# Entry
Amino acid sequence: MQVSAISQREESLLIIQYLPARRPKKPSPIIPPEIIGQVLEYVGLDSKFRHRDLKNVTLCSIALFIETERILYSSIELRKEGQARKLLYALRACPRGFLRRKYVTSIHVSTTNNTLSMVNEEFFLFTIRQILKLTPNLLDLAIRGHEGTDVLMAAVKNYPFRLRSLRMKHCYGNLTPLLIAQPAITTLQLDLSLSDTFLASALYLGGTLPHLEEIEASPQVLAHLVTGRSISRISTVVNSGSDIHDLGEALSKFATPIRVLKMRLCCDISANLLTPLSRNLVDLERLEIYQSEQDRTVRDPTFLVDD
# Structure
């Protein structure tokens, strides 16, 4: 079996295609698993060339080919229609396609590429839906783009996976069908600018996402969460004093103590305004307050109750 090379501009996708070829005359020697692990760990040290180097490792032996393919397919990022099409082909190919489907545990989809024509974008989204139907072991799904929720909602009942993490950025569609269909989610990230509580209305139902532990959402969404959720890690954004009020209302509803709180400040907020939050943060272990990712700092939780 011969492995064809991937074009340089699509190198990040790391999809290995197979073409009919003559079989090797002699089987590859059996390599102990611990040796394979050491080789792949060494190759993957340089993140800049990791994908390219791991792709080359597949040419060394059958044993390395199998183990490397497991790594290459475990985490996938899709930004272009051509990348999605190649991945779908690889997941459907025989006989390796069935095994590759089991390898995929993380998919990150970005639909914000302005270079896509309308026709290509529609085909790209259609291809993503087909890919999601072929990934039974998918645990982490990230969708970035205004069309993202439409991709998910079109076939929400046909997905074979049970997500643990769902990240939605710049997605403003109604998430209710998806959240109801994925009760195993423990980490949920919504766009911080999402203030329309209807779009995340599934979060306000008592039986939805019973295992949710970490959430990133606007104060408006957090304030409407149903009472009694066991959430211990929160990320949010503060645009005004009313956001502090909504955040305080949300903190009072949780059944477990908040351990980690991350706040991005988009306005001037005094320490006195934050002090009322302290009554619900007695067990806080980590506090991050920042205005941008570059300015992110870890603060002492006792700062909330300082005079």
About this structure: The mean pLDDT is 75. The radius of gyration is 23 Å.
